[in-house]
Amino acid sequence: MALKLGLVGIGKIARDQHIPAIAADPRFELVATASRNAGVDGVASFKTVEAMLADVPELDAISICTPPQAHFDAALAALRAGKHVMLEKPPAATTREISLLQAEAARQGRTLFQTWHSRFAAGVDAARDWVKGRTLTGGSITWKEDVHHWHPGQQWIFDAGGLGVFDPGINALSVLTEVLAEEVVVSKAVLEFPENQQAPIAAQLDLRTQSGVAVDTVFDFRQKGEQTWDIELVAATGRLRLSHGGGALEIDGKPVAADEALAGEYPRLYARFAEMVEAGRSEVDWRPFQLVADAFLIGERRTVAAHHV
Ligand code: NAP
Question: How far is CA 14 from CA 34, 103, 294, in A?
Answer without folding.
Answer: 12, 27, 29
